[in-house]
Amino acid sequence: MKPDSIKKSVIEVSDLGLSYGNRTVLQEVSFDVMKGSCLAVMGASGCGKSTLLKGMTGLLKPFNGKVKFEGDSMWGDGQLPHDEVLSKFGVLFQGGALWSSMNLLENISLPLETFSRLNRQEIEDMAAYKLSLVGLSGCEFLYPSELSGGMQKRAGLARALAMDPEILFLDEPSAGLDPINSNQLDELILELKDSLGITFVVVTHELDSIFSISDHSIFLSNQSKTIIDQGKPIDLLKGSRLEEVRDFLGRSSRSNSK
Amino acid sequence: MSLGPKDIRITDEGNYVHCNLLGDWLLVIGSEKAHFSWGNFWELQTQSISTCKFTLSPSSSWDSSLLLFLFRAKTELQKKGIVADFSALPEKVKKLLSFAEDRMAISSSLSHEVINGSNLWADQIVHSFTQVSTFWGKWLLAVGKLFLGKSFMRFGDLIHTCRDCGASALPIVTLIAFLTGLTMAFVGSVQLEKFNATIYVADLVSLAMVREMGALMVAIVMAGRTGAAFAAELGSMKIREEIDSLRTFGIPAIEFLVLPRTLALLLMTPLLTLYADIVGILGGLTVGSQVMDFSALHYFEQTQSALTNMWEIYSGLFKSLAFGLIIGLVGCYKGMFTGSNSASLGKSVTSSVVVSITLIVVCDAIFEICFSLLGYR
């Protein structure tokens, strides 16, 4: 990474509307993600956080509005998003979404074999290195079905990191993790953000982690199906005009003060 | 931005070696050149060196592939008793290096051993035999409980499954049975013409349909259509722990999931077979009346005279009852005992179809042999 990357927006979402068939999930959603920053997407269950991630990663075609990556529209004239755009993304799915017929080493090697110019030995070393980053060294030859839910999640993160993506989309990365592992995950995110300049978009309910990792946050609502508030999480906690948002963010400090 | 290949310039500075990393150290760039210079230098090096100092060209881009190289270099140098000096590298590289080293140091206490069941084939045969017979026994008990009125089975499920595997299968059964009757009539007519006995096509088609082909064709369609669907449905429920969650409520999966499915097939297969018999005879009639110029009435009378004994029809229906049971049980068994990943789900579905069809053909042969020996043919 170039050390002197200037802060500029890397993803621009404007007037985005997403639906499943006739059911509108999100509408009129607009926000920017700054390069090298961490955006937290918050909201109650079922408000469309994962759907928003699908829309941003090109898995769900919006019925309205645009998602722009570094100034280019994600969905070109054709029906599919551009491949070169997708290759800069890393995605961690809610359930890990590991390929169950392959062991962890193969899971992480597959993108490296396909897209990198590393030799066999280097690919294996790289996979082992990525697994150790998420605290799973020694599990290279285990299959996803032999792992616990939290381990699958971490292995999914290691796979998302495989190609050193420019942007990482994480769907509830710390759900199912113990506090220590969850904390280590936050450290990893901060470290990668700082040294490799990776941009993060994180869907999460973990309030402590929202406060420690994110620079900016957006809050989605079930009722209006759009962003009801956005800003730095700490500012939202103190000064959001909506009680719903203050209440949501306040849960963490309340439980801390007890 | 054009990218330069990874390269290393190594110079001997007397008491230490200076290793200057050039080019762009990215995953998408090959590292052959760098590896070559690196390997070459250490091969030719004879003097004893204590330190190797690394620097990175300021114009270089880098990602994890740089870290990977530095880790490997460090390990290699350590083996030679040389200290790798990373202090002149950019601050961010150093930070990430030490972060990664800390993480790597926490070695996982997880055992690499995967517990495998016995690989001895005899053990496996015994194991599957036990599994199959347990399943069969539980199913029989479940049927018993149903008659006692103590079953967990919901009749709504039974009706729903009956519709899925009965009424919804009518179009495909119609097509297959009609074409089977039609084909048999064509093939038969060519042979019977040699003896000037073409009217016996009606006997041939009707007897073959009711005794054999009706039941067999319906069974094969049901194995591919419904048996596979049962295996896939129960298999994915198994993978998603839905079956375990039933068990935690004390609801036996055999009664709740397997019973309605198998009973539905048991009821629907004979009905579909009867329907297929009729459609197959109509297929023969089409050839008889359109190609061979018999009047429809004449053809029907001939068919009627061939089927004077109702046992001909009952024997086919009796067989189809057994086929329905086989398909239902095999499909559900394969689904219930799916492994825990998606590859094993695929295997279960495939093997449910293969095993069902094999058992159907074997069972059909046994029926025919028994009928002949007992004088029912």
Description:
The complex is a heterodimer of chains A (258) and B (377). Chain A is an alpha/beta fold. Chain A has a domain at 1-88 and 167-173 and 209-258: P-loop containing nucleotide triphosphate hydrolases (Rossmann fold), CATH 3.40.50.300. In chain A, 38% of the residues lie in helices and 24% in strands. Chain A is built from nine helices and ten strands. In chain A, a hairpin with a 2-residue loop joins β4 and β5 (72-73). The radius of gyration of chain A is 18 Å and the shape is globular. Residues 1-5 of chain A have low confidence and may be disordered. Chain B is mainly alpha-helical. Chain B has two domains: 7-105, 2-Layer Sandwich (Transcription Regulator spoIIAA), CATH 3.30.750; 143-373, no CATH class. Chain B contains twelve helices and four strands, in the order ββαβαβαααααααααα. In chain B, α9 crosses α11 (311-336). The radius of gyration of chain B is 36 Å and the shape is elongated. The chains are: A alpha/beta (258), B mainly alpha (377). The A-B interface holds A 1-3, 100-101, 112, 115-119, 122, 125-126, 129-130, 132-133, 135-139, 141-146, 163-164, 184, 187-188, 191, 194-196 and B 26-31, 61-65, 67-68, 71-72, 90, 92-93, 95-96, 99-100, 103-104, 106-108, 110, 112, 114, 339-343.
Question: What descriptive keywords fit this protein?
Answer:
heterodimer; A: 258 residues; alpha/beta; Rossmann fold; 6-stranded mixed sheet; 4-stranded antiparallel sheet; 9 helices; disordered N terminus; B: 377 residues; mainly alpha; Transcription Regulator spoIIAA; 2 domains; 12 helices; 4 strands; 6% strand; elongated
